[in-house]
Amino acid sequence: MELHGYFRSSASYRVRIGLNLKGLEYDYYAVNLLKSEQKGDTYRKLNPQGLVPALVDGDTVLTQSLAILEWLDDRHPEPALLPRDSLQRARIRALSYTIACDIQPVQNLRILKYLQSEFAVDDEQKTGWVRQWIHEGFSALEQQLDPAPFAAGEEPGLFECCLIPQIYNAERFGMDIADYPAIHRIARACAEIPAFIEARPENQPDSTL
Amino acid sequence: MELHGYFRSSASYRVRIGLNLKGLEYDYYAVNLLKSEQKGDTYRKLNPQGLVPALVDGDTVLTQSLAILEWLDDRHPEPALLPRDSLQRARIRALSYTIACDIQPVQNLRILKYLQSEFAVDDEQKTGWVRQWIHEGFSALEQQLDPAPFAAGEEPGLFECCLIPQIYNAERFGMDIADYPAIHRIARACAEIPAFIEARPENQPDSTL
User: Fold this and answer.
1) Domain that holds residue A119
2) Long-range CB contact pairs, B109-118, < 8 A, 24+
3) How many CB pairs under 8 A join A and B?
4) Do B75 and A86 touch (CB under 8 A)?
């Protein structure tokens, strides 16, 4: 499989964790967002939306990180990213979407660029914006996470694929994750797991370009 | 079942369509976003995130519209909201997330309020912002939709649950859906189906409050 992504992209990071948790091998192709390579003709042949990541498996091209993770779970069921019980699955999806639909989309690169270029938002205002949405989402998650090591119990899965990249963003904007004890606990547990360590932005080949 | 939502909320509208497509009965409880009822203690007991909708089924409370729709599809498989084939399912989820993760989150009420109060964005700028993200997403969708009547083929499903509320928002901001022929075709097909007609904002009891 080929993963086309960018080291700092949350959505790419989610898929790297998922592939690693499943123990699946893949070749990594860097798409430099700072050079707008995702908007170029070559990449748009993979994904007309011009957003990373894209996962190529033979003739198949998959886009949208959460759709890719669900597909990986369909095709390679063990270890599972989602619980078997449908109610538990709904709970884990809801927690994941709190990040993927309510936090991350409003603070990604294209949005921040627009705020700066069109609304003349300065760095301090930008940081305030990012922190506001992360804080709102993380505060809600704090009330919904059980004391088990991970959101679904004994093993990390879909939620942790979303959470760890979001924490990376939060820390880039100077937030202290210790303010969110349940999230902090999950972050510490994931920090010990090779699948998460190998997926980190700083461990990708394009981090040093 | 009880659906707690708001007539104009995209996420509530998605779930209304899904429940109607499944032929499931529900009681509708209006949560007035303009009065911030979603932030009140009563509603937050249902959903600590303070966002609509919430679906109550006996002792179970479900949140996040896409998690609710997936759960409905698990529990009430016919008619299906997602295709059986895992690759087709990934495709429909990716199209749905283009709306639910990349378009809708950046133009919902809490975001627009923040832009106005913190960045002094005026009405014209706000309209430009909303149209920009809808246009970017809809343009990508145009390239990915097949000529079948609906995204997955002969029947509407998860994607149409997301698309029709997004079109409602686009039209509120003065966009002409005829500019997007594939989307327009799906919109016209859905406009004939009772499940979609009954779910419309103007057909909800709180639309006249």
Assistant:
1) 86-196
2) B109/B33, B111/A106, B114/A129, B114/A132, B115/A119, B118/A125, B118/A128, B118/A129
3) 113
4) yes
Select from A25, A55, A79 the last residue of a domain.
Answer: A79
Give me the residue from A67, A98, A140 closest to B93, CB to CB: A67
Residue B32 tokens read as: 């007035």
Same domain, B32 and B96: no
All residues of chain A having their beta carbon less than 8 Å from the beta carbon of residue B144 are: 48-49
Q: What is the pLDDT of residues B142-197, one digit of tens each?
A: 999 988 899 999 999 999 999 999 999 999 999 999 999 999 999 999 999 999 99
ipTM higher than 0.90?
yes
In a domain, B207, yes or no: no
Residue B31 has what DSSP assignment? -
Q: Is residue A12 part of a domain?
A: yes
Q: Which 3 state secondary structure label does DSSP give B97? A: helix
Answer for the pair A84, A91: CB distance below 8 angstroms, yes or no.
Answer: no
Q: Mutate which of B39, B46, B70 to disrupt the A interface (most A C-beta within 10 Å)?
A: B70
Instruction: Specify the CATH number for the domain of residue B128.
Output: 1.20.1050.10
Peptide bond into B105 cis (omega under 30): no
In whole angstroms, what is the distance from residue B37 CA to residue B19 CA?
23
Residue B39 sits in a domain of what CATH number?
3.40.30.10
DSSP secondary structure string, A110-121? Answer: HHHHHHHHHH--
Q: Which of A79, A107, A130 is the last residue of a domain?
A: A79
Residues of B in contact with A137 (CB under 8 A): 49
Q: Helix, strand, coil: what percent of chain B each, to 5?
A: 65, 10, 30
CB contact under 8 A, A71 and B87: yes
Q: Which one of B48, B98, B111 has the shortest CB-CB distance to A140?
A: B48
Verify that A69 and A127 share a domain, yes or no: no
pLDDT tens track for A1-29: 999 999 999 999 999 999 999 999 999 99
* Domain assignment of residue A124, yes or no: yes
Total domains in chain A come to 2
Query: Distance between CA A135 and CA A173 in Å, rounded?
Result: 12
CA atoms within 13 A on the CB side of B178: 1
